[in-house]
Design brief:
Order of helices and strands of chain B: EEEEEEEEEEEE
Helix content of chain A: under 10%
Distance between the termini of chain A: 36 Å
Shape of chain A: globular
Number of strands of chain A: 11
Radius of gyration of chain B: 13 Å
Shape of chain B: globular
Strand content of chain A: over 45%
Distance between the termini of chain B: 41 Å
Strand content of chain B: over 45%
Oligomer: heterodimer
């Protein structure tokens, strides 16, 4: 199993450009989420999904869109990049069970917006 | 709403000395508690978790954490640290039946040879 994969690893954008960060998992996990990590702020939840066709907003959703057409994929779209979106982005997945679940994280995408 | 407080942003410790990384949380309901570790230039990995039962939980690499409900704390400890423990450690909380995790701001553990 590859686990959670993210592409690209690094990306530089100009203000106003759009792009999609890709996330895929091969563990048949129902729950997937996107976080951004900024110095001194920990990880903040952007969007999450509890299954194909279902998405919801997290703590910091503005400027980002998501969709979940398949169980495996959960892309994150930046519609019009801003310097405030410079960050490291992590995708994570977990199974849905009644017990507390370990979330499995991808290696991250480091995004710089100029 | 949940929140997690990690008061120490950086903790320098001499090799083979003990360490405690502090975590306090607030929540109006019962919770699950987690410690994740992030090694340099990597994603996060689960270190240990408290779901129910014994309040003392251990990891395979010598860390342990104790759930203290009265103090709403979940401090992480290790009796003797190694250079390989250099990493950033994140405490996280989720409510029962809710996959959403709320993370603390992280503690960077630096081991001094």
């Amino acid at each position: 199993n590859a686990g959670v994969t993210q592409t690209p690893k690094f990306q530089v954008l100009k203000t106003g450009q759009s792009m999609t960060l890709q996330c895929a998992q091969d563990m048949n996990h129902e729950y997937m989420s996107w976080y951004r990590q900024d110095p001194g702020m920990g990880l903040r939840l952007i969007h999450y999904s509890v299954g194909a066709g279902i998405t919801d907003q997290g703590e910091v959703p503005n400027g980002y869109n998501v969709s979940r057409s398949t169980t495996e994929d959960f892309p994150l779209r930046l519609l019009s990049a801003a310097p405030s979106q410079t960050s490291v982005y992590f995708c994570a997945s977990s199974p849905r069970t009644p017990l507390g679940n370990e979330q499995f994280f991808g290696p991250g995408t480091r995004l710089t917006v100029l | 709403a949940q929140s997690v407080t990690q008061l120490d942003s950086q903790v320098p410790v001499f090799e083979e000395a003990p360490v405690e990384l502090r975590c306090n949380y607030s929540s109006s309901v019962s919770v699950y508690l987690f410690w994740y570790v992030q090694y340099p230039n990597q994603g996060l990995q689960l270190l240990l978790k408290y779901l129910s039962g014994s309040t003392l939980v251990e990891s395979i690499n010598g860390f342990e954490a104790e759930f203290n409900k009265s103090q709403t704390s979940f401090h992480l400890r290790k009796p003797s640290v190694h250079i390989s423990d250099t990493a950033e450690y994140f405490c996280a909380v989720s409510d029962f039946g809710n996959e959403k995790l709320t993370f603390g701001t992280g503690t960077r553990l630096t081991i001094i040879p």
